User: What shape does this take?
Amino acid sequence: KKLLTRIVNVDDGNGLRVSTDEIDLDDMAGHSYGITSDPLTQFSVLLSAIIHDMDHPGVPNVQLVKENTRSAQIFKKSVAEQNSVELAWG
Assistant: This one.
């Protein structure tokens, strides 16, 4: 199995150079710190990714605080993240 990835390198003063490389997925297993072989870790990563974006407004926490949103009034720090966890578990 092959995975296509894009790597952006900064060139020597001439701007950005984008190169596309193929990576062998079997070779990546040694660099995944056990994620590929541990079902509980796979589940945890997937669950946290889903929860992280739950009801995300698409703006940084600083903007939510500046606009004094309902979430910002309830959660003083990590507004979007705490809101996501509240929705997931609440």
The radius of gyration is 19 Å. DSSP finds five helices and two strands in the chain. The mean pLDDT is 75.
